[in-house]
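Morning, I've got a small favour to ask if you have a moment. It would help a lot if you went through both lines with me. I owe you a coffee for this, so here goes:
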Amino acid sequence: MHEQRAYSIEEAKRKLEGYCAYQDRCHKEVITKLKQMRMIPEAIDQIIVHLINENFLNEERFAQSFARGKFSMKKWGRNRIVSELKQRNISKYNITTALKEIDDEAYLKTLDSLALKRLEQITEQNPLKRKKKLADYLLYRGWESHLVYEKLKELVP
Protein backbone atom coordinates (compact mmCIF):
# COMPACT_ATOMS: atom_id res chain seq x y z
CA MET A 1 0.00 0.00 0.00
CA HIS A 2 1.39 3.41 -0.88
CA GLU A 3 2.10 5.96 1.80
CA GLN A 4 -0.17 9.03 1.75
CA ARG A 5 1.82 12.21 1.96
CA ALA A 6 1.31 14.76 4.72
CA TYR A 7 0.23 18.29 3.81
CA SER A 8 1.15 21.48 5.60
CA ILE A 9 -1.75 23.82 6.36
CA GLU A 10 -0.57 26.18 3.58
CA GLU A 11 -0.35 23.34 1.04
CA ALA A 12 -3.79 22.10 2.05
CA LYS A 13 -5.22 25.63 1.75
CA ARG A 14 -3.87 25.98 -1.81
CA LYS A 15 -5.08 22.53 -2.79
CA LEU A 16 -8.57 23.19 -1.40
CA GLU A 17 -8.74 26.63 -3.02
CA GLY A 18 -8.33 24.89 -6.37
CA TYR A 19 -10.85 22.22 -5.38
CA CYS A 20 -13.44 24.89 -4.49
CA ALA A 21 -12.60 27.17 -7.44
CA TYR A 22 -13.16 24.34 -9.91
CA GLN A 23 -16.75 23.81 -8.75
CA ASP A 24 -18.92 25.14 -5.92
CA ARG A 25 -18.63 22.82 -2.93
CA CYS A 26 -20.55 22.41 0.31
CA HIS A 27 -18.86 22.31 3.72
CA LYS A 28 -19.47 18.57 4.00
CA GLU A 29 -17.56 17.83 0.75
CA VAL A 30 -14.64 20.02 1.81
CA ILE A 31 -14.43 18.45 5.27
CA THR A 32 -14.51 14.97 3.72
CA LYS A 33 -11.70 15.97 1.35
CA LEU A 34 -9.61 17.34 4.23
CA LYS A 35 -10.16 14.16 6.25
CA GLN A 36 -8.99 12.13 3.24
CA MET A 37 -5.86 14.27 3.28
CA ARG A 38 -5.46 13.22 6.95
CA MET A 39 -5.67 16.75 8.30
CA ILE A 40 -6.27 17.11 12.05
CA PRO A 41 -9.56 18.72 13.26
CA GLU A 42 -7.85 22.01 14.27
CA ALA A 43 -6.28 22.32 10.81
CA ILE A 44 -9.62 21.48 9.16
CA ASP A 45 -11.35 24.28 11.11
CA GLN A 46 -8.58 26.74 10.22
CA ILE A 47 -8.73 25.85 6.50
CA ILE A 48 -12.56 26.02 6.41
CA VAL A 49 -12.45 29.51 7.98
CA HIS A 50 -9.84 30.58 5.42
CA LEU A 51 -11.92 29.25 2.50
CA ILE A 52 -15.06 31.03 3.77
CA ASN A 53 -13.20 34.32 4.36
CA GLU A 54 -11.65 34.19 0.88
CA ASN A 55 -15.09 33.33 -0.62
CA PHE A 56 -13.98 29.95 -1.98
CA LEU A 57 -16.60 28.28 0.17
CA ASN A 58 -20.13 29.69 0.21
CA GLU A 59 -23.04 27.38 1.02
CA GLU A 60 -25.70 29.75 -0.33
CA ARG A 61 -23.90 29.95 -3.68
CA PHE A 62 -23.38 26.16 -3.63
CA ALA A 63 -27.08 25.49 -2.96
CA GLN A 64 -28.17 27.86 -5.73
CA SER A 65 -25.87 26.41 -8.37
CA PHE A 66 -26.73 22.86 -7.23
CA ALA A 67 -30.47 23.54 -7.62
CA ARG A 68 -30.03 25.22 -11.03
CA GLY A 69 -27.76 22.47 -12.30
CA LYS A 70 -29.78 19.48 -11.14
CA PHE A 71 -32.98 21.03 -12.48
CA SER A 72 -31.63 22.06 -15.88
CA MET A 73 -29.29 19.13 -16.53
CA LYS A 74 -30.83 16.17 -14.72
CA LYS A 75 -34.45 17.40 -14.79
CA TRP A 76 -34.89 16.82 -11.06
CA GLY A 77 -37.99 18.08 -9.29
CA ARG A 78 -37.94 20.24 -6.16
CA ASN A 79 -38.42 17.30 -3.75
CA ARG A 80 -35.31 15.51 -4.98
CA ILE A 81 -33.25 18.72 -4.93
CA VAL A 82 -34.37 19.47 -1.36
CA SER A 83 -33.56 15.97 -0.12
CA GLU A 84 -30.13 15.99 -1.79
CA LEU A 85 -29.33 19.39 -0.23
CA LYS A 86 -30.48 18.14 3.19
CA GLN A 87 -28.12 15.16 2.86
CA ARG A 88 -25.32 17.69 2.41
CA ASN A 89 -26.36 19.46 5.65
CA ILE A 90 -27.44 22.65 3.87
CA SER A 91 -29.53 24.99 6.06
CA LYS A 92 -33.26 25.45 5.54
CA TYR A 93 -32.66 29.11 4.65
CA ASN A 94 -30.16 28.20 1.90
CA ILE A 95 -32.46 25.48 0.55
CA THR A 96 -35.31 28.00 0.31
CA THR A 97 -33.02 30.49 -1.44
CA ALA A 98 -31.82 27.78 -3.83
CA LEU A 99 -35.37 26.82 -4.85
CA LYS A 100 -36.02 30.45 -5.88
CA GLU A 101 -33.47 29.85 -8.66
CA ILE A 102 -35.99 27.63 -10.46
CA ASP A 103 -38.49 29.55 -12.59
CA ASP A 104 -42.06 28.26 -12.08
CA GLU A 105 -42.95 28.44 -15.77
CA ALA A 106 -39.79 26.59 -16.81
CA TYR A 107 -40.45 24.05 -14.04
CA LEU A 108 -43.89 23.14 -15.41
CA LYS A 109 -42.62 23.08 -19.02
CA THR A 110 -39.84 20.71 -17.98
CA LEU A 111 -42.28 18.41 -16.20
CA ASP A 112 -44.46 18.37 -19.32
CA SER A 113 -41.63 17.54 -21.74
CA LEU A 114 -40.12 14.97 -19.35
CA ALA A 115 -43.48 13.22 -18.90
CA LEU A 116 -44.19 13.16 -22.65
CA LYS A 117 -40.71 11.84 -23.44
CA ARG A 118 -40.97 9.10 -20.81
CA LEU A 119 -44.49 8.14 -21.89
CA GLU A 120 -43.21 7.50 -25.43
CA GLN A 121 -40.58 5.13 -23.99
CA ILE A 122 -43.07 3.09 -21.95
CA THR A 123 -44.11 0.06 -24.02
CA GLU A 124 -46.70 -1.20 -21.52
CA GLN A 125 -50.19 -1.42 -23.11
CA ASN A 126 -52.30 -1.58 -19.94
CA PRO A 127 -53.28 2.07 -19.17
CA LEU A 128 -53.12 1.56 -15.40
CA LYS A 129 -49.64 0.05 -15.57
CA ARG A 130 -48.56 2.84 -17.96
CA LYS A 131 -49.79 5.41 -15.44
CA LYS A 132 -47.97 3.69 -12.60
CA LYS A 133 -44.70 3.46 -14.53
CA LEU A 134 -44.85 7.14 -15.47
CA ALA A 135 -45.81 8.17 -11.93
CA ASP A 136 -43.00 6.11 -10.38
CA TYR A 137 -40.49 7.63 -12.79
CA LEU A 138 -41.55 11.23 -12.11
CA LEU A 139 -41.84 10.76 -8.34
CA TYR A 140 -38.39 9.16 -8.19
CA ARG A 141 -36.99 12.23 -9.91
CA GLY A 142 -38.48 14.38 -7.17
CA TRP A 143 -41.51 15.92 -8.82
CA GLU A 144 -44.32 16.85 -6.42
CA SER A 145 -47.08 14.24 -6.28
CA HIS A 146 -49.94 16.69 -6.97
CA LEU A 147 -48.18 17.87 -10.16
CA VAL A 148 -47.44 14.28 -11.20
CA TYR A 149 -51.05 13.15 -10.74
CA GLU A 150 -52.40 16.18 -12.65
CA LYS A 151 -50.00 15.35 -15.49
CA LEU A 152 -51.10 11.69 -15.48
CA LYS A 153 -54.78 12.67 -15.80
CA GLU A 154 -53.85 14.91 -18.70
CA LEU A 155 -51.62 12.43 -20.58
CA VAL A 156 -52.95 8.94 -19.90
CA PRO A 157 -56.71 8.64 -20.51
Notes: The chain is about 75% helix and 0% strand. The mean pLDDT is 93.
